[in-house]
Amino acid sequence: MSAHTTQTELKLIGKLILEGELHCETGLHIGAGKGSLEIGGSDNPVVKDALGHPYIPGSSLRGKIRSLLEQFSGAAVPSELVYLSRRRGQEVRIHQSDRPDDDICLLFGRNSGRMERVTGEPVDSHNASPARLAVFDAPLELESITVSMRENLDDELTEVKNENAIDRITSQANPRTLERVPAGARFRIRFIMDVLCDEDAPLFGQLVQGLRLLEDDALGGGGSRGSGRVRLANLKLIWRNREYYASGGPAKELISGADVAALQNLVTESGMSFVKE
């Protein structure tokens, strides 16, 4: 848990900007919903921007990292979960507490008001806190889809994976198709973490931990069936203090061309002292 209390005062100290590449080690499927089905298309298309290019929504990346951190910290248990939605078949449960030192709620934000727990008494939260972390939509680097890759794709930028669901009683196969961005594709990622007080600095370590967990998990749908394995590379971390915004002072590049392990080493060895410089 962090050192935050109900008396912690918030005033912008600076911003940490993390940029880099997300490499698809296997095909990636982040669904657009069945409403986007086109004639002759896949049963499960991927989400695309206005130009028809696949991208990773910031909400998908942010939500996955939050989920992994909740599981890692032991917060993904009924007594720590609240309902965001109770619509039947579309229930959404996330961790939220009223503790002022709750790292996850501080990093991802927390609203005030009453929320129903999965088990136990409702949460009456009075400690609303702004989200420190912003995760932006990650566009596809079009040049990562090479000419040789395009020759074997089902669409200009995507592939279709054919799967079968087998009925355990009749052994009948029920075919389904899954549109995926192919292995080898790259996306540009960008995170910004606001440091609003000295106590915020260690929260960046939570983000890095979440990124390490992501590399050994899966992003998007079909993860247990081989999709969604990703790797982060060419990471660059920049610190911009108050003077940068107030008077055009210089930003400080803390690391570049790094992988997640090198980024975590920087955070561990420095103790996040660079946010006070």
Summarize the structure.
The chain has 277 residues and is of the alpha+beta class.
The rounded distance between the terminal residues' Cα atoms is 24 Å
Number of helices: 6
Estimated structural class: alpha+beta
Portion of residues within helices: 10-25%
If you compute it from the alpha carbons, what radius of gyration comes out, rounded to the nearest whole angstrom? Answer: 21 Å
Strand order across the biggest sheet? 7-11-1-12-13
The overall average pLDDT, rounded, is: 90
Main pleated sheet? 5 strands, antiparallel
Oligomer: single chain
Describe the structure.
By secondary structure, this protein is an alpha+beta fold. The protein has one domain. It has six helices and 13 strands. It has helices spanning 58-73, 103-108, 147-150, 203-215, 242-247, 260-270; strands spanning 14-24, 55-56, 81-85, 92-95, 113-115, 123-125, 133-135, 138-139, 159-166, 173-180, 186-195, 230-241, 252-258. The strands form five sheets. Strands 7-11-1-12-13 form a five-stranded antiparallel β-sheet. It has a two-stranded antiparallel sheet with strand order 2-8. The protein has a two-stranded antiparallel ribbon with strand order 3-4. A hairpin with a 7-residue loop joins strand 5 (113-115) and strand 6 (123-125). Helix 1 crosses helix 4. It is globular. The mean pLDDT is 90.
